[in-house]
From TrEMBL:
Subcellular location: Nucleus
Cofactor field: Mn(2+)
Catalytic site: K363
Role according to the record: DNA polymerase that functions in several pathways of DNA repair. Involved in base excision repair (BER) responsible for repair of lesions that give rise to abasic (AP) sites in DNA. Also contributes to DNA double-strand break repair by non-homologous end joining and homologous recombination. Has both template-dependent and template-independent (terminal transferase) DNA polymerase activities. Has also a 5'-deoxyribose-5-phosphate lyase (dRP lyase) activity.
Organism (species): Aspergillus heteromorphus CBS 117.55
The protein, known as: DNA polymerase
Acidic residues: compositionally biased ranges: 251-262
SMART domains assigned to the protein according to its UniProt record, in alphabetical order: POLXc (SM00483)
Gene3D superfamilies per UniProt: 5' to 3' exonuclease, C-terminal subdomain, Beta Polymerase, domain 2, BRCT domain, DNA polymerase beta, N-terminal domain-like, DNA polymerase, thumb domain
GO biological process: DNA replication; double-strand break repair via nonhomologous end joining
Family: Belongs to the DNA polymerase type-X family.
């Protein structure tokens, strides 16, 4: 039975209410307190300021000092911008004018004292964690900095009657209180408009917009699916991307395959099949990166090689700093440029390509006409940025750890070696920083592989050692040595036991292996990470031993050969066809629930034969040397 008109009206009223709730909830999202909008022109890419009425600028007169006090992190950059939108002044240097110190989670009170060279923290300065600004915005009031939930780890609990810091208004109640009747004033039309858009909390007794209830901040509650959807939508709005409906490895990461996520043909294969145009039905997948031949020669002949190289450096920078959304944007742009047969010179030409938005089009034009990119040069212009990039090169240190070291006052590898508490892996990474940063010539990769192969086959002649990674793609050098260990008809347990209990100890006694950095033993396989050195060599090299059962060797070869873009394209293509591809195999009949959460693992179609996985997906066989995307 068709729904009645009344039912339809109720449905759309429900959608309006959902949007209204989303508007209010977005204000309370940590680090996502307002819709970010892109700036225009060629200015530094950042979150644009949102105009907040002066009467709502709750931080006016306050001076915030963030710790770490930089905007390298995209979430911290957004927190800083929103604090400024609500009237705060961002102080770049520590001084007597600071009223609040906002500390990232994971950093301690002692870290703050050490960085600021203080024996005791000033009593007139509020010390709070990163959630403080967004909570204040949520309740439209400067909250008391003495609340336990804002306390920085290691800081002493404040006294019950401790005064608030200077310049901070009292916050006896969190919500706006209805003024006395004699103090009430009629609201202007502009004020009513602001209220209807959620910028002002309607007071009790005031008329509400037709069809809507009062919009009030919600109390503390558990995060739910709507919060995640709101945060993702707001985070992606400032990028030249279309929204994608995925949250897992197989689709979110693969959005870099530009036409796969924004081509209308991807969404219409069934329609073309109905028309009987079978060749057209396959056209939607022809633009996937895995459908094209990519080797070193074809890449060198691309007319946009220089532009791609510069954009790749920006992509590498955003990857190191864990800027997820910009990483996706740059991957999309690079993938799109690789498919162009002509050189893209102007902004208008770039904008005509799916997957490239205004900001990136500006950058492409700048690279072509100036042979440089100011944003890339500015990415590491300050001494702090240089130090951060140095720390990111330490094995075992990601952006979180590198930022923490920087905030704790360390400025060199020597500082880390002599002063910082390091894990065993990080200490090796610091001491062998130079060794690990050197590329490994192809001939040397082969020598490392030969030594391991001899040791493996001495223990079991049927065991196989395959050199993977960039070596298998035919590159002249590699960042590390990836060795895939397998055996016909063997299980992962059998391979792992032989390697960990016999082969690895023997290679240590032989003097080939120098350090064990990590060992994983998960349901998707096992890995041993370490460092090795040739008998006549002086440099330690990073080496990974990857244990793969025979039943999964085909999928593992695809996964551990790469490159990254090619693999993402393969996995996205599988997802578009209702399948799932990972390092264990190709699966079909995968059931998914809300937000594409996997409800069932699916049925294994193929895992052993690499060529057969290509054939099932309809991808022409691409030998490893043709996967350099």
């Amino acid at each position: 039975m068709a729904p009645s008109i009344a039912a339809k009206k109720a449905f759309f009223r429900g959608l309006d209410r959902l949007n209204e709730v989303a508007e209010v909830r977005s204000i309370s999202t940590d680090g996502m307190t307002s819709n970010p909008r892109p700036t225009s022109g060629k200015r530094k890419r950042q979150f644009q300021s949102v105009v907040i009425p002066e009467q709502h600028q709750i931080f006016r007169g306050l001076v915030f000092f963030f710790f770490p006090n930089n905007d390298v992190s995209s979430l911290r950059r957004l927190r800083i911008q929103r604090a400024q939108d609500y009237g705060a002044f961002w102080e770049r240097t520590w001084g007597d004018n600071v009223t609040h110190v906002i500390v990232d989670k994971g950093l301690t009170f002692q870290d703050v004292l050490k960085h600021l060279s203080l024996e005791t923290f000033p009593a007139d300065v509020a010390l709070v964690d990163e959630s403080y600004p967004s909570e204040c915005v949520k309740f439209r009031s400067v909250l008391s900095a003495t609340q336990t939930r804002f306390r920085v780890n290691g800081a002493a609990a404040p006294k019950p009657n401790e005064d608030l810091p200077a310049n901070e208004p009292s916050s006896i109640g969190s919500l706006t209180v209805k003024p006395a009747k004699k103090e009430q004033h009629p609201r202007t039309p502009s004020q009513r408009s602001e209220s209807e858009h959620g910028d002002e909390i309607p007071e009790k007794g005031m008329a509400e917009p037709p069809g809507k209830g009062p919009v009030v901040p919600e109390p503390d509650r558990e995060r739910d699916a709507l919060d995640d959807m709101i945060e993702e939508a707001k985070a992606v709005k400032h990028l030249p991307l279309e929204l994608f409906d995925s949250h897992d490895e197989e689709t979110a990461a693969e959005a870099s395959d530009s036409d796969a996520s924004d081509s209308s043909e991807c969404r219409q294969p069934e329609k073309k099949m109905m028309l009987g145009k079978y060749e057209a039905a396959d056209a939607w997948q022809q633009k996937f990166a895995c459908m094209q031949k990519h080797d070193s020669k074809s890449n060198a002949e691309n007319p946009n090689t220089r532009t791609i190289a510069v954009l790749q450096q920006m992509l590498d920078y955003y990857t190191r700093t864990d800027d997820h959304w910009r990483t996706i944007a740059y991957r999309k742009a690079i993938s799109a440029l690789r498919r162009q047969s002509k050189k893209i010179v102007t902004k208008s030409q770039a904008l005509a390509i799916p997957g490239i938005g205004t900001r990136l089009a500006d950058k492409i034009e700048e690279i072509v006409f100036t042979n440089r990119l100011r944003r890339l040069e500015n990415a590491s212009a300050t001494s702090e940025d240089h130090i951060l990039q140095l720390f990111l090169g330490v094995y075992g240190a990601g952006i979180t750890q590198a930022s923490r070291w920087l905030a704790q006052g360390y400025r060199s590898l020597e500082d880390l070696k002599t002063k910082a508490p390091l894990s065993q892996q990080q200490r090796v990474g610091v001491e062998r920083y130079y060794d690990f940063s050197q590329r490994i010539p192809r001939r040397e990769v082969e020598e490392h592989g030969a030594i391991v192969r001899r040791a493996v086959q001495k223990s079991d002649p049927e065991m196989q050692v395959i050199i993977g990674g960039s070596y298998r793609r035919g590159t002249l050098d590699s960042g590390d040595v990836d060795l895939i260990i397998t055996k016909p008809e063997a299980t992962i347990e059998q391979i792992r036991t032989l390697m960990i209990e016999t082969v690895v100890p023997g290679l240590f006694r032989q003097g080939f292996l120098q350090a064990s950095l990590a060992t994983t033993s998960l349901r998707d396989g096992s890995k041993w990470h370490g460092a090795s050195k040739l008998p006549d060599g002086r440099l330690w090299r990073r080496i990974d031993l990857l244990f793969v059962p025979d039943a999964e060797i085909g999928a593992a070869l695809i996964y551990f050969t790469g490159n990254d873009i090619f693999n993402r394209s393969m996995r996205l293509l599988a997802s578009k066809k209702g399948m799932r591809l990972n390092q264990r195999g190709l699966y079909t009949d995968v059931l998914r629930g809300p937000q594409r959460v996997k409800l069932t693992a699916g049925r294994l179609v193929e895992g052993r034969e690499e060529r057969r996985i290509f054939a099932i997906l309809g991808v022409p066989w691409r030998p490893p040397e043709h996967r350099i995307c």
